[in-house]
Amino acid sequence: MSSKIDAEVHSKIVKRLYQLAPYEGYTQSLLDSVRFMRSNRPLKSTPVLYEPSIVIICQGRKRGYLGDEVYLYDAQHYLVLSVPLPFTSETEASEEEPMLGIAISLDAMVIAELATMLEASGGHTLEAPRGMFSTPLGETLASATLRLLDTLATARDAQILAPSIVREIYYRVLVGEQGGSVRSALAHYGQFGKVAKALRRIHLNYADTLEVGGLASEAGMSVPAFHVHFKAVTKTSPIQYIKSTRLHHARLLMIRDGLTAAAAASRVGYESPSQFSREFKRFFGRSPSAEARTMKASLDILPPTHLAPTHLVEIAVAH
């Protein structure tokens, strides 16, 4: 099967996304697990934190930088994260040609069910697990993406049909070019699984006091071994990971909930507002207030867009 996407399918995907994501930033879809992404401007070296998800960029281009590795995700490649990871991204976009994409959260229970069924069917070998990778999209997954976008245009279709298409997309990823790595990662086998458990703990309790020794003990490792395996997955140390997670969540609290820097600092576990401001500026390159102003358009979440009947007619004619 060719990895190139049919031009007509791609054109329909982009047209639908222009309608579903009319404004810059994130737009919540009519399905909780799906959000649309849009950027009308290029963004250089932007620290981001992605939850476990599938990210399909349909127009424009993004690059992710994690350690020494570079991940391209564009109209021909999608990105998968099996664990929550902070990394640096770059976005190629413009007013004339915005970056348009879709982010689908991973449902661990559905993934586990599909992985079990695949294992029972035989012929699907597991490979070394990876926390993040990009891989060719292909026509089958592109077609499923278009059908998902079409169902997310109306509330009834979104409620009845969209969940089954998301499940199909999970399946296509699990049997795709790097599906073996995805299944291993999401099954949380071996040392990777122990680190994944620690990452879940950090993301659930990032505002609490988190000691590396305690995390290592919960993962069933010595502290030195925990450091080694943790860095192999995240490309950073446990302390830096905890700090970056807190700072990312604080940024979102300021942008999406309108909290002040001091309130956001307290909410994510900082006792000293001045220490928070210093570490925030060192991490993001701007003061908390300046970063919130600059990134609001890119990181805010807008409510679902309800398409007028005329829009649906236009798409039906275009098909």
TrEMBL record:
UniProt entry keywords in alphabetical sequence: Transcription, Transcription regulation
SMART domains: HTH_ARAC
Domain HTH araC/xylS-type stretches: 196-294
PROSITE patterns: HTH_ARAC_FAMILY_2 (PS01124)
GO molecular function, one term: sequence-specific DNA binding
Top-level taxon in the UniProt lineage: Bacteria
Pfam families: AraC_N (PF06719), HTH_18 (PF12833)
Name by which UniProt lists this protein: AraC family transcriptional regulator
UniProt organism field: Vreelandella nigrificans
